Model the fold of this input.
Amino acid sequence: MTFARVRAFVFVGVLLVAGAVVIAVVIGRDSQRYAVSATCPTEWPRADMALPTVRDITVAVFNGARSAGTAASVAAEFRNRGFQVKPVRNPPKPEKVEGVAVLRHGPEAVGAAHVVDAYFLGKATREYDASRRGTEVDVVIGPEFKSLAQPTDVNIALADMGHPKVPPQTCAREV
Done:
């Protein structure tokens, strides 16, 4: 074995030992003192960020579109895909809805709203209400709605959207 080859092996060995020492020190001194939950004010609500399965999501579908019967057909589509669907009714706040859909939810339904938004390919507008209780997601169908996404497109949308974002003045619930 040549001297250059021995020197290279020694150099690589020293690098491996130094890397192992650095990793051991970092892991040993990690105190978790900067964890997110430590900085969260106690009065802020805790949001459920877990992504539930569709059979565990309850939606209430409202018609905010101009054409009659849209909410009923969307509710039937959600039901066919395994969602729990409440009876279709007019929106509690009759206002003009823009875009594909508006999703209204509280802290207990952040993950559920994220899954429902994937059925609109991430194009629905979310309205978060920190004082709202329950896991139900209100879906107000907008005038630009065409159809719910197919299962493959939903999976792609979920991957593209990433993890749900923690709403303002809310903390993620510890699991």
Observations:
- The longest strand covers residues 58-63.
- The chain has a mean pLDDT of 88.
- The radius of gyration is 24 Å.
